[in-house]
Amino acid sequence: MASLKPIEYAAATAEVRAVFDDIKQSRQIKDVNNFWKYLAHDPPTLKRTWESIKEVMAPGALDAVTKEMVYLAVSVTNGCGYCIASHGAAARRAGMSEAMFGELLAVVGMANETNRLANGYRVPIDPQFEQ
Amino acid sequence: MASLKPIEYAAATAEVRAVFDDIKQSRQIKDVNNFWKYLAHDPPTLKRTWESIKEVMAPGALDAVTKEMVYLAVSVTNGCGYCIASHGAAARRAGMSEAMFGELLAVVGMANETNRLANGYRVPIDPQFEQ
Amino acid sequence: MASLKPIEYAAATAEVRAVFDDIKQSRQIKDVNNFWKYLAHDPPTLKRTWESIKEVMAPGALDAVTKEMVYLAVSVTNGCGYCIASHGAAARRAGMSEAMFGELLAVVGMANETNRLANGYRVPIDPQFEQ
Amino acid sequence: MASLKPIEYAAATAEVRAVFDDIKQSRQIKDVNNFWKYLAHDPPTLKRTWESIKEVMAPGALDAVTKEMVYLAVSVTNGCGYCIASHGAAARRAGMSEAMFGELLAVVGMANETNRLANGYRVPIDPQFEQ
Amino acid sequence: MASLKPIEYAAATAEVRAVFDDIKQSRQIKDVNNFWKYLAHDPPTLKRTWESIKEVMAPGALDAVTKEMVYLAVSVTNGCGYCIASHGAAARRAGMSEAMFGELLAVVGMANETNRLANGYRVPIDPQFEQ
Amino acid sequence: MASLKPIEYAAATAEVRAVFDDIKQSRQIKDVNNFWKYLAHDPPTLKRTWESIKEVMAPGALDAVTKEMVYLAVSVTNGCGYCIASHGAAARRAGMSEAMFGELLAVVGMANETNRLANGYRVPIDPQFEQ
User: Fold this and answer.
1) What count of Cα atoms within 13 Å lies in the side-chain half-sphere of residue F9?
2) Do A111 and B33 touch (CB under 8 A)?
3) Of E1, E48, E131, the CB nearest to C2
């Protein structure tokens, strides 16, 4: 059995189109990414995920580019190919320069290394960091 | 067989003390964290890790607080208890407010969720994100 | 040096053919998946893995479709492309509808999100969940 | 700097109390788990996470115990101690017997093993599983 | 509901005792580790896991200490506290010196770092490594 | 926005060429792998990563083939496709036979399985493994 196919706007239900319209308007784009066209197979998840993303990624105490870089850092750590591609592009649109990208990956690499050094040496948490 | 014990300054070799001294001077602290006292069991790793951290975490295209928040985002994704505690404290010292911390975790959570939605729906990368 | 090639039935040893025959008979299929043709490079691992899978995936206190969905949930969390494809198909054959698949991924997504919120906030285990 | 403390009902804002009240009423419990008392430090995340959980975990095409077991399978794969404890308890409350729990962990273990065998042997996806 | 308790030899069924006896005899130890006392809640998983471990960890093309170090490297990468403690001890019993342990963790750290650099830079596989 | 392109020697700065030259000389190869051609976008990371790899992977208390197998075990656990391909080739060049490769993957698979069994059963660390 083959995998699912994307649901294009022309073939979408009114419920799905409403979410697609909101994504397109919020982001000022002509068509939504594949991610949303696949989530459209489960309209409640499409709607909930978009509304959560819209709320979480809106600039607040952190600005848009910082949020996109954090998203990218998590995606790189998890090895999600789709998310690295799409949020790498989103971070660049939000203002991440190549120098910022290079430093971001350097930090992500070091954190993944030292996380395992801390695990491997079984380092106990210092009292000043404890409750 | 029990796990390793931390190596305190008084018991350290000259090679280890030189690294401890540089950490203390760079960070203006009186004593190094447990992480370094355990790495001291392998002096080349202690030295290489500290020099890499010092280079990578120095402000550049990204400022110190952004770098510490990215470090924390990776550590939370990997579930490294020690690193969450120590880099949570480091991020706060570098200027992360409670509002910034809340938004950081919200982004980390969403990224971990959508990474799996992209995996599960086997979403192909859009042509505009491809090479 | 190139990667390994699959071992087809015609080129397999008697030891490998015996496992392939058992897989084909148990699952009522004409040929085994690539997974088994690659494991055939290490016959003891082929045999042990098949016997373990046959025992673990047999209906018991949990039925076949629930077991396949759990397998898929783990594979999606780990981002294993091959396993998502093969166990997605297996789960559908065992009775997973598209509605069940959509809800499964929604739960997998939420669990991956809240696992990190629990990590990030360093939530202590409530006494009623402790030993 | 120490980690955060739980926010108890008596000290909570009206916004937080409204979410706590809805959790308590929906689950017919006297007090909310630590997870919610920590999320309360970020009221929008508390509200969004609870509303998402309530929607996603409601019985639908999958029943409550299956959803809780999938949640537990993900948490075990990620090694989230808090979530293993809390969703292990939730799954038992929803009807997971010890026999079901044993089979669940056996499947989770096998999936984590074979995910890596598929990675390590670089097994290509069979044509019948491809798009 | 509290978590499970270990099953001690005195309280074990004949089926469980047979596995415990084989572990004790194979390893020349007086009592089995907690890991086996918990698996005893699911006797088929106890038996299958022990027989697989006994087969996989036996010296063959790789010697015992190399196998234990690989086990430890995986456990450190996954952050499994129990497994880091128990397989750290097993690796030392099998002959891992402190110098070997230090170099092992250094490699584990570097691999975790460069895995993410390869992900983040979306490095395509060189033709000579491809099928 | 498209992903980055590799930086070839002819187009590289003197700083990057110096690292490429050292890699080629140390490994006695005519051209560097794609990994290094992508890291070249961030010269400090290129230099630091190469110097760390050269130090960490040099034979010491562990020989070259053991180090490459540990690197491969971590990459398989993380599911890093590039690293599995490149370090699989490196391990074979360093002397890993097909029999050693088969046993390596069998251990990696078992460790990933039992890591989750230990998590799921919430096995407490035995006193003899504790500090």
Assistant:
1) 12
2) no
3) E131
Test F45 with A85 for CB contact under 8 angstroms.
no
Q: What span, in angstroms and rounded, lies between the C-alpha atoms of A112 and B80?
A: 10
Give the model's pLDDT for residue F2. Answer: 60
Binning pLDDT at 50, 70 and 90, where does residue E117 land? very high
Which of A75, A114, A121 comes nearest B115 by C-beta?
A75
Per-residue pLDDT at B3: 77
* Cβ(E27)–Cβ(E93) below 8 Å: no
Q: A43-53 pLDDT, tens per residue?
A: 999 999 999 99
Could F1 and A79 be called an inter-chain contact, meaning their C-beta atoms sit closer than 8 Å?
A: no
Model ipTM value: 0.97
Contact A44/D55, CB-based, under 8 Å? yes
Pick from B85, B104, B113: which is nearest to A70 by CB? B104
Assess whether pLDDT exceeds 70 at residue C40: yes
Query: CA of B47 to nearest chain A CA: how many angstroms apart?
Result: 13
pLDDT in tens, C109-121: 999 999 999 999 9
Chain C residue closest in CA terms to B84? C120
Average pLDDT, chain D: 96
Q: Residue F130's pLDDT is what?
A: 83
Rounded to whole angstroms, the Cα distance separating F82 from E111 reads: 12
CA distance D34 to C116: 15
Provide the whole-model pTM.
0.98
Tell me if C45 and F106 make a contact (CB, 8 A cut-off). yes
How many other C-beta atoms are found inside a 10 Å radius of the C-beta of residue A130? 11
The answer to whether B117 touches A39, Cβ cutoff 8 Å, is yes
**Chain C residue whose CA is closest to E130:** C2
In angstroms, the CA F103 to CA E56 distance is 7
Q: How far is CA F105 from CA A28, E51, E113, F101, in A?
A: 48, 17, 21, 6
**Enclosing H/E stretch for F62:** none
User: How many percent of chain E have pLDDT more than 90?
Assistant: 96
Test mutation, C29, C41, C57, C129, chain D, max D CBs within 10 A = C129
Cα E31 from Cα E23, distance rounded (Å): 9
What is residue A14's three-state secondary structure? helix
What is the distance between the alpha carbons of residues F111 and F88, in angstroms, rounded to a whole number? 19
- Local structure of residue A115 (DSSP, 8 states): H
